Amino acid sequence: MIASLLIANRGEIARRIIRSAQALGIRTIAVHSDVDAGMPFVREADEAVCIGTAAAADSYLRQDRLLEAARATGAQAIHPGYGFLSENAGFAEAVVAAGLVWVGAPPAAIRAMGLKDAAKARMIAAGVPVTPGYLGEDQSPDRLRAEADAIGYPVLIKAVAGGGGKGMRQVEAPADFAEALASCKREAAASFGDDRVLIEKYILSPRHVEVQVFGDTHGQVVHLFERDCSLQRRHQKVIEEAPAPGMDAETRGAVCDAAVRAARAVDYVGAGTIEFIADGSEGLRADRIWFMEMNTRLQVEHPVTEAITGQDLVEWQLRVASGEPLPKSQAELSITGWAMEARLYAENPATGFLPSTGPLDRLRFPANVRVDSGVEEGGAVTPFYDPMIAKLIVHGATRTQAAQRLAAAARGTQVWPVRTNAAFLARAAAHPDFVAGRVDTGFIARHADALIAPAEPSAEVIAAAAAAILPPVTDDPWTALRGFRTNAAPAPLVAVEVAGKAHLAAPAVLPGAEVADGVLFVAGEAWPFGPRRADHVGGAGDGDGALLAPMPGRVIAVPVIAGQKVTRGERLLVLEAMKMEQALVAPFDGIVAELKVTEGAQVTEGMLLARIVAEEG
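RESULT FIELD:
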């Protein structure tokens, strides 16, 4: 068994690896940037080394510093986690060349499956069905457009080196192709240093089904069944589950066998995932499921597979990397119950899912839920890394039970002052179509109005806030039942502020609500409240032409200049934060009177970026 392990990652996955490694008696070494020095994973490791400043390019992506940290601490092996360098074949080779054990896929397999076009060609040769599309060398816009026209719209433009939803654009009509291609290539070049793309037929009722595979150095390859990751927003997974709803034994056998063939085709070792796209318009059928790509690493959603199989996949990784055979044969693996995982993000659904950063003054989760998190109460969410706060993982005897438990877990989550998607997750898990298993990748877009809570508090929330600011009740049981006393006079109206706005409301109890430090937590939402201030004024009016930063981030594009005429909806600035781009557009026809920032500038939320004035005359 490996004696010491350096974890070339951070946050939630670093903590996850540390737990399994320490349970096996392995000494763990964390690496961290300067802003991560106080993070839980740093404290929980047996040893920690600072490798640079906040930007990932100056720390977690510095291969030289990671290898130096391994040498300095006497690490025997390196585990890359997921993201960062986990699928970087060059880094894997450098680790091996340094005499260290690489706890990941063989470099040759990473290279073979890292480029989507080459991977598909290899899968075709292995007899694995692939999605119809164009994988050619000619990358000219005219050729790509012609291929898209021939395939038929809608199509997907996908970065050859892409992953994690980056470098991907859906195109509905020929008129939209040129702009989508340019945007996709720009994002691919920035994210992966490679702007090549492929074109795929877009499946109209797509299901994202993936199979967990595992290989060892003794020639064994097994699958640990499938997961369904169809609930996505902007091609990024939100809720994952295992097994896949509607998967019968025959289809499962066909898909899992194809996944094992795919892994064998590249002599795979370690944990990997074969991702398939399925046409779910007539249910899951073996002849309507196609290979999409392979992730040559552990996946974020691996806990749902652990829950239904009873296996520790990180332990499997460490044993395989130590030269041991797989802990179980295919015949010894089976499915028990149903598991679901929801990704709790630092974002505000009410403002278009813009990132939210800041201190975590309150971070509480319900009991009896597996929570994999990289942060803790009293810590903070910074703008430098992925916005995921935690993964909520539940298991039940049936899918219905698992969905009920997931919805309850999201409703019971309390986070403040950072905004989260907890209420959004609760609504999604409780939606009738989700509970019935009617899921595909368009689920969130279709049901957005029902899933995204209004930005303003409901009357019930305002009434509960009003009740919370009243003086404490006495021990008199009749007084304690304020609002419910038989024959009592109507409760007086109370002046209260909720989320910065003044209200008059009759106080009333709201079942399930909890108050802490001036915040009302209910159903995954958080509402700050207090007595109405004497100086309270309404919100600023709209239409003044001021463009304020909706989130902290970096300005990555400024396609206009001061004094330029612009039309309503024209793009003025583009911000980037936490892997997300946000375009700011002109609110009306006019002239750019002020332009306060330039490309590359760092901005804070609420900062004035530009001002548009109406053209006189």
